[in-house]
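#struct-pred
JK: can someone run the complex with NDP? inputs below
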Amino acid sequence: MKKFAVIGNPIKHSLSPQIHSEFAHQHSIDLSYEKILAEDDKAFESEILHLINKGFTGVNVTLPFKGRAAEISSTRTSQVHLTGSANTLSFDNDAIEAHTTDGIGLVNDLSEKIGTISNSSILLLGAGGAANGVIPSVFSEKISHLFLWNRTIEKSFDMVDSWQKSYKNISVMDVIDLNKIDIVINATSAGIDDHASSPINLNDSHGDLICYDMVYGKQTPFLKNARDNNLTFFDGLGMLVKQAAASFEIWHEKKVESKSVEDYLRSALT
Ligand code: NDP
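RT: done, structure tokens with the ligand placed:
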């Protein structure tokens, strides 16, 4: 039986064991998948060595260790190089191969829900690991322009400086103008705090604006603001399931059906 785990801090609420067990069921694969809490970077690294010695096939990595996971790996995909973040590690003897599937999870989910994001003008809110981690996948869809906005706007200017080395059609939107935007993606953690307000005001948007929040399992102030303006909106549960599907494919070389797993989790969460 192949052994897997997800490592992070906190980890208690991770849905990854459930998701991978549903995917394994689709292919009648026998596997184990556990949650592991690591206190800090040092504990994370020693846990990885321990799992390699115990014959684990791979691990998923979640906050706050995605950067460290990329650093300690022996080989990295081009997306891991670009984003400096890894959420999927495969072990081959002592070698660690790093992948990142968050971006593909977002793009696959948006594509399933709205058709395609090609030629879209996108506003990405946030300047943390989640925002930076999806940028190469978003650009791989040949979008028309990516605008960045963050509460601490200097970080958006820094992001543009850094990403302009790879992509030309990226700029900061320091004064929000939603008339220029087809899709707004909230990659801030504002929704985690029930008392926070929506990071931007959607009241002045045109009626075709599509709103996507990476947070899942709750209606965030951003999604409430979208709902109150009768806009089309989605939470990040589909992204979570589809990044797991991409990890599963890396480890097992098998494609999975993810919509039924998303529906099942959504009914369990509400
Ligand atoms: P970080 O801590 O790295 O970044 C947090 C970001 O949120 C910063 O840009 C910060 O702005 C901004 N922010 C925090 N509070 C507020 C607020 N009240 N108003 C406006 N902006 C705010 O987090 P990550 O980038 O790693 O994650 C962001 C979110 O994405 C998390 O909620 C995470 O759960 C979710 N996520 C979901 C995934 C999925 O599969 N669905 C995958 C990955 C992440 P500032 O710089 O000004 O502090």
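RT: quick notes.
The first strand starts at residue 2 and ends at 8.
DSSP finds ten helices and twelve strands in the chain.
JK: thanks, will look after standup
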